[in-house]
Every structure is written in C-alpha cells, then in structure tokens.
C-alpha cells in the first residue's frame, strides 16, 4: 500500500515536472527579473514615498544591488541568472549561450520586469495615491515615476546620455566576465553574486548622477511601459 502511494506521488511529480531545459531557463529568467524589480525598485519606492525618512541614495544603491544578488542566487543554477538582455546578448556574442535561446531569455526578462512593476504598484498603491493627492506625476517634487524607471538629469544632452549608458554598461559586462573568468584571479565559488552586487554599488555610486545607471533594458523599459499604462501617461517616454 505504501509503495503504491509513493509511486502515485512520483507519477504526479513527473507529470508536473518541466522536462524542457529551455522552459526551465525561461521561467528562471522571468522569476529572477521579477525579484530584482520588486525588491530593487521597492527600495526606491520606500525612499521616495517616505520623503527620505526611510531611505536615500545609499539605501537605494545598496538595496538595488542586493536585489540583484538575491535574484542571481535564486536563478543562477538554472539559467545563469542573466536578468539583463545586455548580459544575454554578450553571452551569445562570446559563444557562451546559443542564439536560439536569446529571444526566450529576453522575452522572459522583459515580462518579469513588467509583472514586477505591476506587483510593486499594487504593494505601494495606497502610498502612491496619498503621496501627491492621487496624482501620478513624472516631474516635480511629488514625482513618483522614477520609482519604476530611470530619468536623465535636466542638464543632460542626448549625446552625453548615450555615452553615459555605453560606458556604464561596458564596465558592467567587462567586470562580470572578469569575475567568471577562470584564467583571472577568480572569485570563490558561490560568492560571484555578492561580488556582482558590489560591482553594481560601485557603478551606481560613481556613474549614477546623469541618468541613474540604466544598464538593463528590461529593468527600465518594461516598468516604464507599465507606468505609461497605469496612469502616468506616455509622457514617460519623452
């Protein structure tokens, strides 16, 4: 009797188990990006909605970096924890991932970021509604759009913004590849996500003034699209 029950449990597990490795990797990237947005943008939301009483530049930089660390720990063993289309693209360019997987990874990342933004909006809905008298603003002292996406400083030109993003993303990819390069000094196995978190803190602390270090297209575009649909309007793209 016990054997029959065990066999039944096994059969249920086998039916529910994903057999496709690509499906597992796709879900992994969705989940990782979702975690990053909810926890990372959540640190920004807490700072803005409390008007600095529950956070500031330091907490948002560290909070977002640690959100990335947690996301990589959750997904690294399944999909590598890319959670960034730029990382997935670089992996394909250097032959570390098949190009056939690229659209699945990127699609999952963009979708995970969108769902993460929607989840965070729901969590902080009352706070957002009370912050500016029910108005969802993009600019001004009561602006809340920057909780979800990055925005350039008023002085920043288009050319300077482009250069800013290229340099920040270059440093991100260069050092991430160095971290995982076995021919380099290397990082103790299992500590790579923490070192990546430290890297993000360094980049955001040194190159974040101009436009908030938008080094991840999924992290910026999907939440921006969500805000456009949720009430801030399509001015978030201007």
From TrEMBL:
Gene Ontology molecular function, alphabetical: glycerol channel activity; urea transmembrane transporter activity; water channel activity
Membrane topology listed for this record: Multi-pass membrane protein
Pfam family, one: MIP
Catalysed reactions, as listed in the record: urea(in) = urea(out); H2O(in) = H2O(out); glycerol(in) = glycerol(out)
Keywords carried by this UniProt record: Membrane, Transmembrane, Transmembrane helix, Transport
Gene Ontology CC annotations of this record: basolateral plasma membrane
Family: Belongs to the MIP/aquaporin (TC 1.A.8) family.
Name under which the protein is recorded: Aquaporin-9
């Amino acid at each position: 009797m016990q054997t029959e029950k065990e066999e039944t449990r096994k059969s249920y597990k086998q039916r529910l188990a994903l057999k496709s490795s690509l499906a597992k990797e796709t879900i992994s990237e969705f989940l990782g990006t979702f975690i990053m947005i909810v926890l990372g943008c959540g640190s920004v939301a807490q700072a803005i909605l409390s008007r600095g009483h529950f956070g500031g530049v330091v907490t948002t930089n560290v909070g977002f970096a640690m959100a990335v660390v947690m996301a990589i720990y959750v997904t690294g063993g399944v999909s590598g924890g890319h959670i960034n289309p730029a990382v997935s693209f670089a992996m394909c360019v250097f032959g570390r991932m098949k190009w056939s997987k690229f659209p699945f990874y990127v699609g999952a990342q963009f979708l995970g970021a969108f769902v993460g933004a929607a989840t965070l909006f729901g969590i902080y809905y009352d706070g957002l509604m009370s912050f500016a008298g029910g108005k969802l603003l993009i600019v001004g002292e009561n602006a809340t759009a920057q909780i979800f996406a990055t925005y350039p400083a008023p002085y920043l030109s288009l050319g300077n913004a482009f250069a800013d993003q290229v340099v920040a993303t270059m440093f991100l990819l260069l050092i991430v590849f160095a971290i995982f390069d076995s021919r380099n000094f290397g990082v103790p196995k299992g500590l790579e996500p923490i070192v990546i978190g430290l890297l993000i803190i360094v980049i955001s602390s040194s190159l974040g003034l101009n436009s908030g270090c938008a080094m991840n297209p999924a992290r910026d575009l999907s939440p921006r699209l969500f805000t456009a649909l949720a009430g801030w309007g399509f001015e978030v793209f201007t």
